[in-house]
Design goal:
42% of the residues lie in helices and 13% in strands. Strand 1, helix 2 and strand 2 form a beta-alpha-beta unit. The longest helix has 23 residues.
């Protein structure tokens, strides 16, 4: 989004924790640069970028704590970053709007309103009420109550909300947010990397077992237990298959219940692209996934996708043409569809061209076009202050 705004000469500033520009050699923060850089540095002007790495450092340290405490301290760090931004809003001139990432917006929004700026919430997840209906939170009730009260307060201060899928948008509407003030702007992926990364990919052979691939953090939220049970049933029926599991994982996953699952661990983008090209179908039985970028990444390689109806990226799939959409926790439905795929391997393989076509609207270039056009229209609309 920052790049999109910069390319349209609409970016007044980009304030971030993760370094987006190289930290200066004299900066005491410079040694932390390698620790914090998860993404490529951005071609933004130095004067537009401000860093505060306290929040990401706290998040890194918090991951060493028990999970319930990790959540608490991660949210505390985001609130600290929010206050740091809010203290600097008053110095801005000729700025029409601020866009803040969720959980780090409340104080900045309040400061922006005092400056007569529009406030736009960049919401990567579902509305918290929707999440609570579908997912047990690990933190204590007291901490969870404090987090949700903070979320409610920042949503109340938002003039507009940007979500990443129609499914996520609906979660805000279901929670009572004005439909006129919430939009779905699907994110993108590097289609070039996934459609052309053939180096190291191996040719498929008809005598190989039908291979499904799961990509993402293996845990209850992504429905890994549903996949394990489905694989166990296929094994019991003597149906030859294998499932690759790519990504990190929650503790205490009962992997031994499904011998046909192979854990690959965390992969680079290039390694993941090669696995998608070698696999026959993606499986993602998420209980809630506001988008699920791996879906369009798999489609871009020609790998059909089987996803749950609680996955935002389901909107990229043409049913029975580039993939399938199934109930999130209906193991019977997953076993039936996986069995069909195994017995109709040629039909699944024939879906590759349609899968690649369905991925095309989800490039980062198309995202930048969508988001800048929408923000331009938004700030000219009477529903939102300008």
């Amino acid at each position: 989004m920052a790049l999109a705004l910069h390319n349209e000469n609409q970016l007044a500033g980009y304030w971030t924790g993760v370094p987006a520009r190289p930290l200066t050699p004299r900066s005491w923060l410079q040694p932390l640069s390698r620790l914090l850089e998860k993404h490529s540095l951005l071609p933004l002007p130095d004067e537009a970028v401000r860093h505060n790495v306290v929040a990401p450092v706290v998040r890194r340290v918090a991951k060493l704590l028990p999970h319930a405490h990790t959540v608490d301290w991660m949210h505390r760090s985001m609130r600290w970053f929010d206050r740091w931004c809010a203290n600097r809003v008053s110095s801005l001139n000729d700025v029409g709007a601020v866009i803040c990432y969720e959980n780090a917006a409340l104080h900045t929004f309040r400061a922006a309103h005092r400056q007569d700026m529009a406030t736009i919430l960049d919401a990567a997840s579902f509305h918290h009420a929707w999440q609570d209906r579908h997912y047990d939170y690990p933190e204590s009730d007291a901490v969870h109550r404090r987090i949700t009260e903070h979320k409610d307060a920042e949503i109340e201060q938002a003039d507009y909300v940007l979500t990443v899928s129609e499914l996520a948008r609906q979660s805000y509407i279901d929670a009572g947010f004005d439909p006129v003030r919430v939009a779905a702007i699907p994110v993108g992926c590097d289609l070039e990397r996934f459609s052309h990364s053939t180096e190291g990919a191996q040719e498929k052979h008809s005598h190989d077992p039908f291979t499904f691939i799961f990509a993402g953090h293996a845990g209850l939220r992504k429905g890994i237990d549903t996949l394990i049970e489905a694989s166990r049933r296929l094994d019991q029926q003597g149906i030859n298959h294998q499932i690759w599991v790519a990504g990190g994982e929650d503790p205490n996953i009962p992997w031994n219940q499904a011998p046909s699952l192979e854990r690959l661990g965390r992969l680079t983008h290039e390694e993941l692209a090669q696995r998608f090209q070698r696999a026959d179908a993606l499986v993602l039985p998420s209980r809630h996934d506001s988008f699920g970028m791996v879906v369009v990444e798999a489609l871009a390689t020609g790998c059909p996708a089987m996803v749950s109806e609680q996955t935002g990226a389901k909107q990229a799939i043409s049913e029975n043409e580039s993939g399938w959409i199934l109930p999130a926790e209906d193991t019977d439905a997953w076993v039936d569809r996986m069995t069909w795929c195994i017995h109709h391997r040629d039909d699944v393989a024939s879906m590759a061209p349609k899968a690649r076509r369905d991925a095309q609207p989800y490039s980062w270039e198309r995202y930048r076009q969508r988001v800048t056009a929408h923000l331009t229209d938004l700030l000219m609309d009477s529903h939102v202050p300008s």
